[in-house]
Amino acid sequence: MASRHQLRGALLEEVILVLLCSSGYVPVAEVGQDPTLSRSGAGLQVKGRGANHQIDAIADFTIPQPFTNPQRLLVEAKAYDANKVDLGVVRNVVGVLKDVNEYWRAEGRSACRRLRYHYQSAIFSATGFTSHAQTYAYAQDIYLLPLRRSAHFTPILDALNQVSDALAEEPNSARIGELRRQFRAWLDGTQPHPDPLLIPLLDACEDIRSALLGMIADRFPIFLVPDRPEALEKLESRMQMQIHFGERGWFLGPLDYEYMFSFDLPDELFERYAENGQLSRTAAADMKEEMFQAIKALYIRKGQLRVITFELDRTWLERIREQTRGNREVATNND
Fold first, then answer.
1. Are residues 188 and 220 in the same domain?
2. Which is it for strands 71-78 and 118-125: parallel, antiparallel or unpaired?
3. Are residues 184 and 316 in the same domain?
4. Is 80 exceeded by the pLDDT of residue 278?
5. What's the angle, vertex CA 47, arms to CA 43 and CA 51, rounded to 5?
6. Radius of gyration of the chain measured on its C-alpha atoms
7. Which residue, of 169, 199, 244, 271, has the greatest Cβ tally within 10 A?
8. Can you give 63-88 as a three-state secondary structure string?
9. Partners of residue 245 on adjacent β-strands
10. Helix, strand and coil in the chain, % to nearest 5
11. d(CA 283, CA 288)
12. Which residues have a Cβ under 8 Å from the Cβ of 83 and sit 6 or more positions away?
């Protein structure tokens, strides 16, 4: 029998795949003609150098980039009852990522023509990450995206709890696979009548529809969740923004729309980037200062790609670092 957190994690992955579409990602649902994928009874598998790995949430980045193989994102989403994502989860993701990046398949008679992907991994968590998980992820280039302090994402987490409670007695993982299929089919418009138990979650997704992946200093990803779908329609190519922190978490928005986006930060991981000079003011002396004064995001709507630059007030980094230190001290005292 699938546990509540397994059900929540599986459905959370489907939600993340949907929200990533507006940032240029397209979910991979079938093997098709792709020789790097296979399918087992449990779902999709990605072929590695040493083994095949079951990965249920896969998305291709649709924007070609020079001097790199096509990018493919492997998504893990964890929705535990209370525990944070620990070092063991990140270690497993690192092992899978290394193995699949070392696999390739020669095409036809030419060994020089190979279908290869540049794989990346991101872990989303409804409960945050332990200190050791953050440190290891930083060293191994695994991207961690917490969700628990992102206020606009809270209705989805609440709906996940409601749905998982209702589904908790479902007997096996095949049921999870069927729920995934229905979730994607409903969003595609090919299944107008999904399992009624999914309706609260589908409604919560419909209330948001899209999210943006923003990059701080072109290095550190944050998951920007709008307060309503129309927020993305208000985006301009360059926007003056401020970062706010309060009882409900982190927010990004202009002065007249302060809560346009909510987001969360893995505090210790962010601080580690800062301490190593990648987000520090001192490093700006040798690099363009504006790199540290903006969050950049890609937004795709109706096939049209836009690069959005959120220009931040000059004290934004100090505000974030001060708050993250405070959050770490509180967490340490509570442990």
1. no
2. parallel
3. no
4. no
5. 95
6. 20
7. 271
8. CCCCCCCCEEEEEEEECCCCCCECHH
9. 250
10. 40, 30, 30
11. 9
12. 127
How many structural domains are present in the chain? 2
Please report which confidence band the pLDDT of residue 280 belongs to, taking 50, 70 and 90 as the band edges: low
Domain that residue 281 falls in:
211-335
Choosing from 160, 186, 209, the residue where a domain stops is: 209
Q: Indicate if 45 and 157 belong to the same structural domain.
A: yes
Beta-bridge partners for 129: 85
Closest CA to 72 of 35, 122, 107: 122
Question: Residue 190 in contact with residue 288, Cβ under 8 Å?
Answer: no
Pull the structure tokens for residue 289: 């200062």
Q: Is 107 helix (H, G, I), strand (E, B) or coil?
A: strand
Answer yes or no: are the C-beta atoms of 171 and 1 closer than 8 Å. Answer: yes
CATH of the domain at 89: 3.40.1350.10
Find the mean pLDDT for residues 102-121. 74
Q: Give backbone dihedrals phi and psi of 56, rounded to 5 degrees, phi first.
A: -85, -20
- Count of residues making up the chain: 335
Question: Out of 28-37, 176-185, 187-196, which region has the weakest mean confidence (pLDDT)?
Answer: 187-196
Structure tokens at 151: 């206020």
